[in-house]
Design brief:
The structure holds two protein chains of two kinds. Chain A is mainly alpha-helical. Chain A has helices at 3-39, 41-58, 60-63, 100-136, 138-153, 156-166, 171-197, 201-208, 213-249, 260-269, 272-275, 277-305. Chain B is globular and about 90 Å long. The chains are: A mainly alpha, B mainly alpha.
Chain lengths: 312, 324
């Protein structure tokens, strides 16, 4: 009982100092990352652009004046087809009288969803495969690595097109296919990393302390490969968005999902390249900007992870 | 050399294994198709007896394992059966399409490698110059921008707006036929110009970036100092450095060629180029599965073969590589 006040006094004494130190560390870290951005101005620009797209996707119902497939009607009640950019539809309309700007905004949702889900899925799968293959070695490694060899041998776009035409096109299937295509790279990179980590003294120490395989793998090794996994998430978002756009552009996308690739497909089929530039440019530019933004961000992150790249 | 033979055999076995796996996956996929090919042809007037006879004729009533073995054999011997709709053996159709695809890929690849190597080497040599910064910047942009949008843009500007170039196809309708007449015709080159340049704009970034970075590696080597001490002019030293920096490029080209076949799907669709990629899109929308299957198989084979060659070449040209 007599100890209690003293203890609380000590806590009271220590707490603010910790808070101050923590805050200082946070500020320091923030400052460091600002410095990093000064070194990579393109990555900062990329982040800003991605942030804009994320905001557009989140607030789509508020920003987009029309629904993704809503037909615009003029004052007289007629459908406004292929209107060039005007005050009412400031990116013009499609041949079916849909608002290009609204479609663009709604499309960002599909892009983000496909990108994030396929990147997370593939990196999760790839990381687990890489960890297990690298750590256990032997037959496990052999089987898993031959599986990545097979995955590397399958040409993605043609394969995905065949699968989609045999099954039926849906967003879930597209995401599943992208995951199937992307996990292999992550798996190989993570495995190589695990092979080198496995022989480090801290793993021996953990083993000597009696840690089981599972705990060594997920407590001691996994945290050390996570930065690399994050890099592959960024790369995966980029690849996922590109692949979905390519599939949709070729007409193998989900019929109910309005993505940028789908917009390009509609425009391409309707011959808008000849007649309606305002229909072709927005989805193409949005796609390019998004993909390039993620690319510069992942490049900067890669250089931060591996400073040797910086000189190159 | 014994090490190389072991390595060769191991790679070959792996190649065979991967091809077998892919064939098996494809077999399983096409088994999933609802119904069977007879449904496309059989009239409602056919009696069950006639249907059964037709199925037996096509081997569709055989047990699964027999069909699987026959399928493997047919694929390995490039016997893809007949197209459902074009009255030609699939292997003939695909053969023509591959030739057309190569008519786009080969010139584009050649230009990308030659010019890309030169630009990359110079950029690497003049490290820190404006030229280097500009090259890297432009290459990274071209590398990351979706090339099918570049293709669409090029088509919009040069074919539809300016009307300088034909808007797609490989030769004009009613034009020449046969390999040499096509290759030597002005018509073909005019049609090739736009898709070819779009392809170059993407593919050239690889050799540029690769040669630049391997030039940076080579640049610090001691042997260059020795050459300098011998009093060789700077131009000769660049030539020596480039020759050494070229090593990684050889494997890169092989891998790039294999991947190109798959990338052709988009480009050929946009430019209506009658190649194997466009054939795949067409056959899938026509439900002409024998053709689709063969196209997919050929694209996979191209990539695998090129990868295999890349692995072997690397060991042959670089004496430092050992086969552990």
């Amino acid at each position: 009982m007599t100890d209690l006040p003293r203890a609380s006094a000590r806590v009271g004494h220590v707490w603010p100092r910790r808070v101050v130190a923590g805050a200082r560390a946070a500020i320091e870290r923030g400052w460091q990352s600002m410095k990093i951005f000064r070194r990579y101005p393109s990555a900062l620009a990329g982040l800003v652009l991605v942030a804009i797209i994320v905001v557009a996707a989140c607030l789509a119902p508020l920003i987009a004046p029309y629904g993704p497939f809503e037909v615009v009607r003029g004052a007289s009640g007629g459908v406004v087809r292929l209107s060039p950019p005007a005050a009412m539809n400031w990116m013009g309309t499609t041949n079916q009288g849909m608002d290009v700007f609204s479609q663009l905004i709604w499309g960002s949702r599909i892009a983000l969803m496909v990108g994030l889900l396929s990147a997370l899925g593939s990196v999760l799968l790839g990381t687990i495969v890489g960890l297990v293959a690298g750590y256990f070695g032997g037959w496990t490694d052999e089987v898993l690595m031959r599986a990545t060899d097979v995955a590397f041998g399958i040409p993605f776009l043609p394969f995905a097109m065949v699968v989609i035409s045999i099954a039926s096109p849906s967003l879930t299937l597209v995401i599943a296919l992208v995951i199937f295509f992307l996990w292999r790279t992550t798996a190989r990179v993570i495995r190589a990393q695990v092979l080198s980590l496995k022989t480090r003294p801290f793993i021996w120490a953990a083993k000597a302390a009696g840690a089981g395989n599972f705990s060594i793998l997920f407590r001691h090794i996994a945290p050390n490969v996570l930065p690399l996994s994050f890099l592959y998430i960024a790369i995966g978002v980029q690849a996922g968005v590109m692949l979905e756009a390519a599939l949709s552009f070729l007409g193998f996308g989900d019929v109910h999902a309005l993505s940028w690739g789908r917009m390009l497909n509609d425009a391409f089929r309707a011959g808008a390249m000849r007649t309606a530039w305002w229909w072709v440019l927005p989805p193409g530019l949005a796609l390019s900007i998004f993909v390039m933004s993620i690319f510069v961000i992942s490049r900067a992150y890669e250089e931060i992870l591996n400073p040797r790249l910086r000189s190159m | 050399m014994g090490g190389f033979r072991d390595y060769f055999v191991r790679r070959l076995l792996l190649l065979a294994f991967v091809i077998w796996c892919i064939l098996t996956i494809m077999f399983a996929l096409f088994q999933l198709l609802p119904g069977d090919p007879t449904m496309l042809f059989i009239d409602s007037n056919f009696s069950q007896d006639m249907i059964d006879r037709q199925k037996a004729l096509w081997g569709l009533s055989d047990p699964l394992w027999l069909r699987y073995v026959r399928y493997l054999w047919n694929m390995v011997t490039f016997d893809f059966g007949r197209s459902f709709f074009q009255s030609e053996p699939v292997s003939d159709i695909i053969g023509d399409k591959i030739e057309n695809t190569c008519l786009m890929i080969v010139p584009a690849l050649f230009i990308s490698v030659v010019i890309g190597t030169l630009i990359g080497a110079v950029a690497g040599w003049r490290r820190g110059s404006t030229f280097e910064h500009a090259t890297v910047g432009v290459s990274l942009i071209l590398h990351s921008v979706p090339s099918f949008f570049v293709g669409i843009l090029a088509l919009m500007i040069f074919s539809y707006q300016l009307r300088w170039l034909p808007p797609g196809g490989m030769v004009s309708l009613g034009g020449v036929e046969g390999f040499w007449p096509i290759v030597t015709s002005r018509d073909y080159w005019m049609h090739l110009l736009l898709p070819g340049l779009v392809l170059v704009s993407r593919e050239i970034t690889g050799p540029i970036l690769l040669l630049r970075s391997s030039m940076l590696d080579v640049k610090g080597s001691d042997f260059l100092d020795i050459l300098r001490a011998k009093g060789l002019p700077e131009r000769d030293i660049i030539a020596h450095a480039t020759r050494n920096a070229l090593l990684p490029l050889v494997t890169y080209i092989a891998v790039m060629t294999g991947l190109l076949f798959q990338g052709q799907v988009l480009l050929e669709t946009i430019f209506a180029w009658p190649g194997v990629g466009r054939e795949l899109v067409q056959s899938l929308s026509d439900l002409d599965y024998p053709v689709a299957q063969a196209a997919l198989y050929v694209m996979a084979l191209a990539a695998l073969a090129c990868n295999f060659i890349a692995d072997l070449l690397y060991g042959l040209i670089d004496p430092r590589v050992t086969y552990a």
